[in-house]
Amino acid sequence: MSLVTVPFYQKRHKHFDQSYLQIQRSEGSSPGGPAWVPLEERLGTACAAPGPSVPPRPSAALGTAWPLHPCRYQSLVASYGEAKRERFLRELAEMEENVHLARSQAQDKLDKYAIQEMVEDKLAGDRHSYLERMRRAPEILVRLRSHTVWERMSVKLCFTVQGFPTPVVQWYKDGSLICQAGEPGKYRIESKYGVHTLEINRANFDDTATYSAVATNGYGQVSTNAAVVVRRFHGDEEPFRSVGLPIGLPPSSVLPYMHFDVQFLEKFGVTFRREGETVTLKCTLLVTPELKRVQPRAEWYRDDVLVKESRWAKMFFGEGQASLSFSHLNKDDEGLYTLRIVSRGGVSEHSAFLFVRDADPLVTGAPGAPMDLQCHDANRDYVIVTWKPPNTTTESPVIGYFIDRCEVGTDNWVQCNDAPVKICKYPVTGLFEGRSYVFRVRAVNSAGISRPSRVSEAVAALDPVDLRRLQGSWEPPGPALTECTAPAGDVQVPGPPTNVHVSEISRTYVVLSWDPPAPRGKEPLMYFIEKSVVGSGSWQRVNAQTAVRSPRYAVFDLAEGKPYVFRVLSANKHGLSEPSEITAPIQAQDTIAVPSAPGRVLASRNTRTSVVVQWDRPKHEEDLLGYYVDCCVAGSNAWEPCNHKPIGYNRFVVHGLTTGEQYVFRVKAVNAMGMSENSQESDVIKVQAALTVPSHPYGVTLLNCDGHSMTLGWKVPR
Questions:
Q1: CB-CB contact of 210 with 460 (8 Å)
Q2: Which residues contact 319 (CB under 8 A, 6 or more apart)?
Q3: Do 453 and 440 contact (CB within 8 A), yes or no?
């Protein structure tokens, strides 16, 4: 019997299911042992005919494995399968338990979320209905009050507003939004419990203005305004001006104390733009010496009038540059612009013209927009608005103008006149005392209505006489304030007004002015105006529906060609005064006429693209606003405007012409009544550079000197 060595992996792992290999080897290799029988047959036999078990014979060879009994092997296989099945069932039960637990937890969360969502929906519905009941437009409970303070004092403006949602409040100064970041430390804006406050620190004379507060939410908008008047001491006091009227302060006389040498490296040239566009006029400078803290002063002028920063124009000076930027051009911005750099060493300047053409009309053939809108003689309930007419070349003549007004802080434009006004001046009535307004004008011709003009500066409906009466002036050494009017006295019913006269006459209206009664009493005054046709003997009250609070009034609806007389009555809560003295007979008519045409027009060469045009002034030039110059290519009869804003002098340089082309020119005079007839056309002129006087020679040098004579040399002129 040969010895068989069991492999190491069978010793270590004892794979009983492979023991038949050992049985085969141990029994088959022995010569006297039994023959080899397959394991399946032996297992089948053992299981089919159970009998007395025969113990296996140990192998004679050392290390031979004992044979495994078939039934024991089957029981081991069955027990292993049973253990595996039990483990699988146990894991399956655990998994089912975990799934059930996860489902129950998920269901609890879903139920919780459903209940929470139901509660939130109910609360949201209740909240919405509650908010709907609470929502309302802003309402001002306490309005702003006007203040008069001395210079370098602080002033605080307060008002109270309620509304829901909480209104957003914005502050305006003469219609311009107040920005705290623009002037750090100047303004302080606070809002607490519905009380809104604007504090102006160390007020100066320029802070005299009309301040408005606009409260807005999703359901409406309200505004309130007040006047702030900053007064100077008597010695430094400037002439009084009405709040809201344009200011013309002289330029500062303070000059930098150093001498600077200024050279223009790059200059702005003649510029052409349209209304609504943007433009920047810029010069690059070389300033010597270059100091950070001390610099010369840069000033911009338009037609020799100092330009100030506004919402339309912004200035910059520094880093070797000086610029003037326009965010939205209008014809008001056209003119000759001059940049002056001022220092102790003198003035360095550069000039060029800015042309601003009309924007495309809203209706084909409509005229251009009016320009240079100004407000004058502001009072409690009216103001006089003036403007300049647009130039018309190919369009039909202007037949009138519409004036619109808008309260500051709103966008509600109201047309002031029903029929077009033919003269470039109109008294706007029906203003509310204490409120600020802006105005605009539109021109009308047979084709349609023009675009509106640029909006005017904000003006307050306040009477300067009342402001002076309520204010005082400080006169050293005594601190007492002096009244500007006579004492009120102890009267109750006021006396009649005095000095009733006509301050302005036109074809469509007459402006009456008068002085308040003296004594006037302590109560607020109102005035009533009466008119009468000369010879009729009957008086008709002009303002029966509306009481007049200012000592001026514009009377409309006067019959043409009939003379009228007027009288005024004053009233307060105690009663009505006696009528004033009757005025002299007055007839509504135009006091000025359209100017006559300018005289002879002369054109001369200037540069390759420009021509100098000069003309004689008209014989009748009453209240002249300026001139318009037109040009056309010779023989074409297609006239085009050369300037789009009236110029006040009788000489003009026309730029933007084609070199080598031949042109003719004509001129029109303009005043408040309109434009004159065209002047006679100039002679035909060809555009080309003119012969100029040469510059001086330079570089003079002594070449030789022999004691009796000198030889000089120089360079030819540049």
A1: yes
A2: none
A3: yes
Q: Tell whether the model's pLDDT for residue 661 goes beyond 60.
A: yes
Q: Could you tell me which of 423, 385, 388 has the C-alpha nearest to residue 403?
A: 385
Please provide the average confidence, as pLDDT, over all residues in the chain: 81
User: How far apart are the C-alpha atoms of 327 and 392, rounded to whole Å?
Assistant: 26
CA angle 465, 468, 474 (to 5 degrees): 160
Q: Quick one: CA torsion of 254, 244, 327, 672, rounded to 10 degrees? A: -100
User: What is the rounded CA–CA span in Å between residue 664 and residue 682?
Assistant: 6
Helix (H) / strand (E) element for 9: namely: helix 8-13
Q: SS in 3 state form for 37-61?
A: CCHHHHHHHHHHCCCCCCCCCCCCC
Maximum CA extent, the chain: 173
DSSP symbols for 498-511: EEEEEEEE-SSEEE
The CA distance from 235 to 239, in Å, is 11
Q: Does pTM top 0.90 for this prediction?
A: no
* Helix (H), strand (E) at residue 375: strand 371-376
Please state, as a whole number, how many other Cβ atoms lie within 10 Å of the Cβ of residue 227: 21
Number of residues in the chain: 718
**Using CA atoms, how far apart are residues 411 and 428, in angstroms rounded to an integer?**
18
Pair 418, 395: CB distance under 8 Å: no
- Residue 211 near residue 173, CB atoms below 8 Å: yes
Q: Is 6 left (phi over 0), alpha (psi -120 to 50) or beta?
A: beta
Segment 512-561, tens digit of pLDDT: 888 888 777 777 888 899 999 888 888 988 887 777 888 888 888 888 88
Distance CA 624, CA 626 (A): 6
Q: Which of 676, 494, 716 is nearest to 596 (CA)?
A: 676
Q: Above pLDDT 90, what percent of the chain?
A: 32
> H helices within 442-502, ranges in order?
464-470
> What is residue 78's DSSP assignment?
H
Task: Assess contact for 594 and 674: CB atoms under 8 A.
Answer: yes
Q: Does residue 85 surpass a pLDDT of 90?
A: no
pLDDT over threshold 70, residue 339:
yes
Alpha-carbon Rg for the chain, nearest whole angstrom, is 50
Task: Give how far Cα 535 sits from Cα of 152, 539, 562, 587, Å.
Answer: 60, 11, 10, 14
Please work out, in degrees rounded to the nearest 5, the angle formed at the alpha carbon of residue 259 by the alpha carbons of 254 and 262.
Answer: 100
Token duo for residue 321: 């540059």
Query: Average pLDDT for residues 689-693, to the nearest whole number?
Result: 78
Residue 346 has pLDDT above 70, yes or no: yes
Sorting pLDDT into bands at 50, 70 and 90, what band is 607?
confident
Half-sphere exposure of 504 (CA within 13 A, CB side): 16
Q: Please tell me the distance from the alpha carbon of residue 502 to that of residue 589, in angstroms, as a whole number.
A: 13
Do 374 and 386 touch, CB atoms closer than 8 A?
yes
In percent, the amount of the chain with pLDDT more than 70 equals 81
Per-residue confidence at 268, pLDDT binned at 50, 70, 90? very high
Start-to-end C-alpha separation, the chain: 135
Cα–Cα distance for residue pair 447/397, rounded to 1 Å = 10
Which has the closest alpha carbon to 482: 468, 493, 467, 500? Answer: 468
For residues 217 and 146, the answer to whether their CB atoms sit within 8 Å is no
Residue 32, pLDDT above cutoff 70 = no
Q: Going along 421-536, which residue ranges are E strands?
A: 425-429, 436-444, 459-460, 498-505, 509-515, 526-533
CB atoms within 10 A of CB 41: 9
